[in-house]
Amino acid sequence: MHALMDQTHEPFVADEAESVIARKAADKLKAVAEANEDGADHARRH
User: Fold this and answer.
1) CA separation for the pair 35, 43 (Å, rounded)
2) Has residue 41 been placed in a domain?
3) How many domains does the chain have?
4) Which structural domain range is residue 27 located in?
5) What confidence score (pLDDT) does residue 45 get?
6) Alpha carbons 11 and 26: distance in angstroms, whole number
7) Which residue, of 3, 15, 27, 46, has the greatest Cβ tally within 10 A?
8) Region 13-36: what's the mean pLDDT?
9) Are 22 and 14 in contact (CB under 8 A)?
């Protein structure tokens, strides 16, 4: 996706459907990252 964005100097605009998908993906990634942090904290304590 970054490669496509680099090909234009126009502002990158997502439609509403793309925005919803991106928000859901970001929420899932955040949850995974937080779970990984919790696991790392647990491993350090034990």
Assistant:
1) 12
2) yes
3) 1
4) 14-45
5) 61
6) 21
7) 27
8) 93
9) yes
